[in-house]
């Protein structure tokens, strides 16, 4: 699975800020957006919001201490996302990004790689501090 470099950089930055969760969505123009979510948001509310804005969920992410997929997240968001990403602080403070896909009711680890983005895939990542 290839992920745009800009989106990965933003996810790693969010992990450094602390725990959080959200979705990477594809906008109607093909660009990607990272949308943090609140714990109380439901799958039905998010599905409605994504549909109204013409967005398609690409992946669910969680930034947390664990390095494996969270079973509650998978159960809760399975209908919206097939790719689940975990961004965590690993050994000696190294950030780790791992991914899993759901297919036919099974969860399978996927190899992740980075790709440079073309202008249509702009992940809205600012390089400014």
Which descriptors would you attach to this protein?
alpha/beta; two-stranded parallel ribbon; single chain; 129 residues
Short description:
This protein is of the alpha/beta class. It has helices at 5-17, 43-53, 71-77, and strands spanning 2-4, 20-26, 32-36, 56-63, 83-89, 95-103, 106-110, 113-115.
What does this structure look like?
The strands form two sheets. The protein has a six-stranded mixed β-sheet with strand order 3-2-4-5-6-7, with helices on one face. A two-stranded parallel sheet has the order 1-8. The chain is of the alpha/beta class and 129 residues long. The chain is globular, with a radius of gyration of 14 Å. Helix content is 24%, strand content 36%. The protein has helices spanning 5-17, 43-53, 71-77; strands spanning 2-4, 20-26, 32-36, 56-63, 83-89, 95-103, 106-110, 113-115.
Overall radius of gyration: 14 Å
Largest sheet strand order: 3-2-4-5-6-7
Structural class: alpha/beta
Count of separate DSSP helical elements: 3
Beginning-to-end CA distance, first to last residue: 29 Å
Helix content estimate = 10-25%
């Amino acid at each position: 699975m290839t992920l745009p470099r800009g989106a990965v950089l933003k996810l790693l930055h969010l992990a450094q800020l602390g725990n959080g969760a959200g979705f990477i969505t594809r906008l109607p123009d093909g660009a990607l957006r990272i949308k943090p979510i609140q714990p109380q948001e439901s799958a039905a509310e998010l599905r409605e919001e994504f549909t109204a804005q013409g967005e398609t969920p690409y992946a669910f992410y969680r930034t947390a201490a664990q390095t494996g997929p969270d079973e509650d997240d998978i159960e809760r968001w399975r209908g919206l996302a097939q790719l689940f990403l975990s961004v965590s602080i690993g050994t000696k403070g190294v950030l780790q990004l791992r991914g899993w896909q759901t297919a036919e009711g099974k969860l399978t680890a996927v190899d992740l790689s980075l790709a440079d983005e073309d202008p249509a895939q702009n992940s809205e990542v600012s390089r400014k501090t």
